[in-house]
Amino acid sequence: MAFGVFGGTFDPPHIAHLILAAEAQAQLGLSRVVWVLTAKSPLKVDLLISDLDFRLDMLAQAIKDNPDFSISRVDIDRSPPYYSVDTVHLLSQANPSEELVYLMGEDSLNDLPRWHKPVDFVAACDSIGVMRRLGEEHTNLMDLGALIPGLTEKVRFVDAPLLDISSSEIRRRAAQGLPYRYFLPPGVFEIIQARHLYHN
Question: What count of other Cβ atoms lies within 10 Å of the Cβ of residue 165?
Fold first, then answer.
């Protein structure tokens, strides 16, 4: 049995996140998907992000209707820095009878050489599910594998619909008064509206 790990700042979580997680679960045969809300990404140190409590509330709203989705506090209830290699080790220790499949986008796969201890990270994962967008140019896995031993054997590709939706685009639209309501689950939109997130 295998479970997926889907990490991010989720500022905010949107429908593309949900579609990608559902596609990964179906195509990789995962029993469930654990969403890891990162308090602060080591690769986004200069990015202003919303308060953790707001993001936690939004993520809970986004996934509440799917019993196969849950939130892990592994990157909340410990001290920074929040390196993925440590996250994977902690989740594996907590779930020793299950295989761990780390889910990422193809952009993150290309960035993997910049991650903290990428070789150790790859070794700690049973598999790495890479969500690639249909119609886009794909990663040269052999070149990456030459930089990170063991990577090519771990990668399992997930073909996902081409959805040009991002958290940064939603934040921009909210700030500029442009429509963004239908990019989000209704509960997430309501939190943003009620708390005036991203509007200034």
Answer: 15
78-130 residue pLDDT tens: 999 999 999 999 999 999 999 999 999 888 999 999 999 999 999 999 999 99
Dihedral angle computed from the Cα positions of residues 10, 16, 21 and 27, in that order, rounded to the nearest 10 degrees: -160
Domain region containing 153: 2-165
Question: What's the structural domain count of the chain?
Answer: 1
In this structure, what token pair is assigned to residue 65? Answer: 């209707």
The residues facing 131 across adjacent strands are 105, 158
Q: What would the pLDDT profile of 29-79 be if each residue is shown by its tens digit?
A: 999 999 999 987 665 556 688 999 999 999 999 999 999 999 999 999 999
What would the two tokens of residue 112 be? 């993997």
Predicted TM-score (pTM) of the model is: 0.93
Q: What share of residues in the chain are helix, strand, coil (percent, to 5)?
A: 45, 20, 40
Burial 4-17 (b: 16+ CB within 10 A, else e): bbbbbbbbbbbebb
Per the structure block, which two tokens stand in for 169? 């685009």
Tell me if 93 is assigned to some domain: yes
Q: Looking at residue 127, which CATH number applies to its domain?
A: 3.40.50.620
Residue 174 lies in a domain: no
